[in-house]
């Protein structure tokens, strides 16, 4: 289960400087909102089929809190943070190389992986590229825009419904062998129609509350050396993307004039009422 | 849990499914788990207790085969409020009040009796029940509404739910309360006759524990129960109560539903009549702070307790089976639900493996009889007295004598005083009290009139308006999916709901029910309209109006914080 920390863009939390640039130091970091749907998909899979769910993220040490949040909200068993100064300022390609290396290391040293879940594009970058690029690096199939999924563990196949947006939204059903990567759509909704699933869900919640309180014990941090990555191919040096400049979007000019009127001021309200008169009801 | 039912079906299967996690469901589930039965408990509230209301006393009877503290260690310390150590009834005539000590009646067959608030109590029970049932492969699920019975070839084999796929079970315990949809679907209970029901409304009043102690002259580990009867409520048959909790008071009124309808009384106004009576001045007269307004329908076990509360694999316990005993002024419900729940579990354990699907139900009914529970719920002497007491002619004669100067004097002399106090305290006599005005209004009024002292304390309590009360309640409204449908909107069929519904009132537009004048072809007609948003799910309108009544989906609707 892949996740990323992003600036909290919600009102009251986000902070911009005078030029309209985001002030990252003053803006708290939260889990990328779209990742919540991936978490739900991972949880639903675990509740229905059992297994072990690990959270993985790449970013500064502070992202451990994002992974802790994932543990609390969807009951991951443990957390892996890929964190290193050399990884700073990675673009999507460098990130994909790093994250796929993290997944490969996990498969070699921790356990084999059947499914990787990721959310649909991050709130800060909005590229939607990192997931597919990571999957490309792993040479796995990928299913995007997933709104529902079902797994046949015996056949080792995943069947998913995906939302294809167009002039008319269509729902497509696809099948793929495991292992594969699932990118959830914000329309994803978990369903628990079996009592036994709900009981498992409740049990996991109780277990995890204890575990999350002691998150550091369940957190593993890997740097570029652990991942056996050449610094020239990661971080800023390994990122082919160049951002030349960022132009603030000017505020749209108002096309209408507005006059403030105190509703309690009878004289000032008169012209308003007169204007409205023709639209009032018949009797 | 196994995914294949006994007949190879695709349904999930549990040995036992218990619907509702109040005291009856909790007792059944705990006892089933003790018998090693795989038990799933389905509760429609966000948490057990969020849908529950009671006046507030739970009894542990000496004679009962099971009490709640037998089944749940630490119940009294952790889930209950104060014990009742002082029990009185106040007979009221205008501002005159005559008080009798009812402790003898209260203590008859009573091991202990505690005040409770249901959110606290039932949520505590839920946690214990989940622990116990988890050990035998089950557990408690909240936010799940069971909406019907799963049948195969007409036989009940399980339940259907709004939120889950159908579930098959060898035993289905319907502990889904006074408005049990399962009992009705099985044809075991109905919502037909208002005279089979009481309706209670209650205010939980915030009060500092020091103030509770001071105002009632008690210590931290003591509590009072006061009952009120007489002309406080005009001619509506019923009475009031006040119980002390640790940090609040439960004050409420309970009336015969048919009487509320006949007198066109507004339940919240009757409650206010009690709250603002001069007698209450000393207790709540200054700084009245209401935490919660609540309402509940109460079955009258004398008339509706089902003698054979089972069908196929389904058994009914508690309110769902009408097991609510009104023993004169004392109402006992939760204790019987606990007994019945535990007995139903025992019946299943005894008959486990029996090929006859009704074996557990039959054994359960026998255990209810053999344990004396049914005799308490449906006392023989009541059936005898009823034939006399309900004959209007006899009642009228008694009333006229009591109201005459001679009758009043007779009742009011000091000898009569002692006799009356003793009579009130006789469990045998109070179980014979007929459901007429005589017992509820005339006798207490005459006593109050003749023997009472005038109370002229100034009571400054200002209860909130109905609108404010509704505004303080917590709702999660299932927008666009109302759980009650008004089938007949004529005033004749459904007009009674406008005043009998505890969250509706004549000339109040913000309640569930209201009347509207509609012009059709020059004629003007009064019709009743319904908005279920303020509904407290008491079930009153299911009886007094023509409705299709269901509970809201799991987690939806009103959420009581006190209960």
Automatic annotation (TrEMBL), chain B:
<dbReference type="GO" id="GO:0004497">
    <property type="term" value="F:monooxygenase activity"/>
</dbReference>
<keyword id="KW-0560">Oxidoreductase</keyword>
<protein>
    <submittedName>
        <fullName>Monooxygenase FAD-binding protein</fullName>
    </submittedName>
</protein>
<dbReference type="InterPro" id="IPR002938">
    <property type="entry name" value="FAD-bd"/>
</dbReference>
<keyword id="KW-0274">FAD</keyword>
<keyword id="KW-0285">Flavoprotein</keyword>
<dbReference type="Pfam" id="PF01494">
    <property type="entry name" value="FAD_binding_3"/>
</dbReference>
<keyword id="KW-0503">Monooxygenase</keyword>
<dbReference type="GO" id="GO:0071949">
    <property type="term" value="F:FAD binding"/>
</dbReference>
<dbReference type="InterPro" id="IPR039651">
    <property type="entry name" value="FixC-like"/>
</dbReference>
<feature type="domain" description="FAD-binding">
    <location>
        <begin position="14"/>
        <end position="357"/>
    </location>
</feature>
<dbReference type="InterPro" id="IPR036188">
    <property type="entry name" value="FAD/NAD-bd_sf"/>
</dbReference>
């Amino acid at each position: 289960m892949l996740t990323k920390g992003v600036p909290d863009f919600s009102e009251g939390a986000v902070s911009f400087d005078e030029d309209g640039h985001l002030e990252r130091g003053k803006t708290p970091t939260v889990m990328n909102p779209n990742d919540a749907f991936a978490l739900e998909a991972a949880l639903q899979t675990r509740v229905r089929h059992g297994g072990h769910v690990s959270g993985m993220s790449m970013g500064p040490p502070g992202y451990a809190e994002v992974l802790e949040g994932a543990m609390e909200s969807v009951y991951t068993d443990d957390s892996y943070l890929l964190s290193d100064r050399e990884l700073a300022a990675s673009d999507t390609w460098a990130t994909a190389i790093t994250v796929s290396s993290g997944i490969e290391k996990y498969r070699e040293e921790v356990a084999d992986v059947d499914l990787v879940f990721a959310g649909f594009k991050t709130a800060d970058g909005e590229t939607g590229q990192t997931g597919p690029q990571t999957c490309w690096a792993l040479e796995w199939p990928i299913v995007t825009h997933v709104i529902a999924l079902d797994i046949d563990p015996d056949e080792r196949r995943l069947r998913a419904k995906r939302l294809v947006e167009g002039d008319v939204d269509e729902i497509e059903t696809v099948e793929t062998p495991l292992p594969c990567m699932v990118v959830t759509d914000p329309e994803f909704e978990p369903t628990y129609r079996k009592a036994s699933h709900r009981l498992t869900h409740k049990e996991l919640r109780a277990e995890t509350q204890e575990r999350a309180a002691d998150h550091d014990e369940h957190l593993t941090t890997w740097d570029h050396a652990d991942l056996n990555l050449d610094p020239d191919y990661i971080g800023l040096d390994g990122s082919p993307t160049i951002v030349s400049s960022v132009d603030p979007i000017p505020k749209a000019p108002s096309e209408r004039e507005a006059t403030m009127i105190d509703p309690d001021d009878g004289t000032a309200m008169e012209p308003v009422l007169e204007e409205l008169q023709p639209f009032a009801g018949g009797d | 849990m196994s995914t294949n039912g006994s007949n190879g079906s695709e349904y999930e299967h549990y040995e036992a499914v218990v619907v509702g996690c109040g005291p009856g469901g909790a007792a059944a589930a705990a006892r089933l788990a003790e018998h090693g039965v795989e038990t799933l408990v389905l509760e429609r509230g966000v948490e057990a207790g969020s849908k529950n209301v009671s006046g507030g006393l739970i009894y542990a009877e000496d004679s009962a085969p099971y009490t709640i503290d037998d089944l749940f260690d630490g119940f009294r310390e952790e889930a209950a409020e104060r014990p009742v150590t002082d029990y009185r009834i106040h007979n009221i005539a205008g501002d005159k009040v005559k008080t009798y000590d009812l402790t003898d009646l209260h203590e008859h067959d009573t091991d202990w009796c505690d005040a409770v608030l249901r959110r606290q109590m039932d949520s505590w029970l839920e946690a214990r029940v989940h622990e116990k049932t988890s050990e035998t492969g089950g557990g408690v699920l909240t936010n799940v509404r069971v909406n019907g019975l799963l049948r195969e070839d007409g036989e009940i084999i399980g339940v259907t739910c709004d939120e889950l796929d159908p579930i098959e079970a060898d035993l289905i315990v319907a502990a889904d309360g006074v408005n049990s949809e399962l009992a009705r679907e099985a044809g075991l209970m109905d919502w037909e006759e208002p005279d089979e029901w009481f309706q209670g409304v209650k205010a939980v009043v915030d009060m500092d524990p020091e103030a509770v102690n001071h105002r009632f002259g008690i210590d931290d580990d003591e509590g009072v129960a006061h009952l009120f009867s007489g002309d406080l409520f005009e001619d509506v048959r019923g009475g009031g109560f006040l119980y002390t909790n640790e940090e609040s008071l439960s004050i409420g009124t309970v009336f015969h539903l048919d009487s509320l309808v006949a007198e066109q009384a507004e339940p919240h106004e009757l409650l206010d009549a009690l709250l603002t009576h001069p007698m209450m001045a000393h207790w709540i007269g200054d700084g009245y702070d209401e935490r919660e307004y609540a309402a509940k329908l109460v079955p009258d076990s004398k008339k509706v307790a089902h003698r054979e509360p089972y069908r196929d694999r389904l058994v009914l316990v508690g309110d769902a089976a009408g097991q609510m005993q009104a023993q004169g002024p004392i109402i006992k419900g939760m204790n019987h639900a606990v007994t019945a729940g535990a007995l139903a579990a025992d019946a299943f354990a005894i008959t486990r493996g029996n090929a006859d699907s009704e074996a557990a139900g039959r054994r359960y009914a026998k255990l209810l009889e053999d344990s004396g529970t049914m005799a308490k719920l449906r006392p023989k002497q009541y059936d005898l007295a009823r034939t006399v007491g309900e004959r209007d002619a006899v009642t009228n004669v008694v009333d006229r004598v009591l109201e005459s100067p001679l009758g009043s004097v007779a009742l009011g002399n000091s000898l009569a005083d002692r006799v009356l106090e003793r009579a009130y305290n006789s469990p045998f006599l109070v179980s014979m009290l007929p459901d007429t005005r005589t017992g509820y209004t005339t006798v207490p009024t005459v006593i109050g009139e003749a023997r009472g002292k005038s109370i002229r304390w100034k009571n400054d309590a200002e209860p909130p308006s109905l609108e404010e009360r509704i505004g303080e309640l917590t709702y999660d409204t299932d927008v666009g999916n109302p759980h009650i449908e008004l089938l007949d909107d004529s005033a004749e069929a459904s007009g009674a709901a406008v005043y009998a519904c505890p969250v509706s009132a004549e000339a109040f537009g913000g309640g569930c029910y209201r009347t509207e004048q509609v012009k059709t072809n020059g004629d003007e007609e009064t019709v009743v309209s319904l908005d279920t948003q303020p509904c407290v799910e008491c079930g009153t309108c299911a009886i007094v109006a023509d409705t299709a009544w269901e509970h809201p989906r799991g987690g939806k609707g009103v959420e009581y914080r006190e209960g």
